[in-house]
Predict the structure.
Amino acid sequence: MAETNDKLDLAKTDKTYYGAGKTAQIVELDEIGYVSVTGQGSPEGELFASSIEAMYTVAYAVKGRCKAAGEDFTVPKLEGLWWVEDMSVDPLSVPREQWLWKLLIRMPEFAGEPLVNDARSQAAMKKQELARIADVQYTTLKEGTSVQMLHVGPFSTEPETLSVMYRFIEDQGLAINGLHHEIYLSDFRKTEPSKLRTILRYPVRPV
């Protein structure tokens, strides 16, 4: 019997999660598992870069174990939750070195916490120079009812898209009920800023 080369690609199978358009929309999201790492500092900083490397190292270790078990998958896009200590102020008024973030890479349902923990230990032994691997954890997120929209262009122009989302949320009789969530459809380390594609999302609740 011929072997199949099929592998799960969540970006293709979960159109709700990855399919935001250029207008704001309401979506319903179930609980989802991720590998994650938390930190503080500018996204241009060394800690942020090393955290991304550690995350992908663990994610690909998970992929390797799943592939060996006959359940291969495409490692999904990088994501991030962003906030500041004092949420009553405009985050953009806070120095970037004080920004708080939680980086995420989504995991398929068959890659749960025990597998992620084993893969992290394996990755830590192979990449001992990457100290942040020890901080990578399995986490779940249930955003439920959310509003999302695709932002095209540099991160510096995100406020323009966010203003559209804020108006939509208010017009729908909703209020923000969670952290600012970004899904990086483009690799911002390699893509020209004007061509970046980023999904912006907020969990919401009725006012």
Notes: DSSP finds five helices and nine strands in the chain. Residues 12 and 94 are 37 Å apart (CA to CA). The helical segments are 10-13, 15-18, 46-68, 113-126, 158-171.
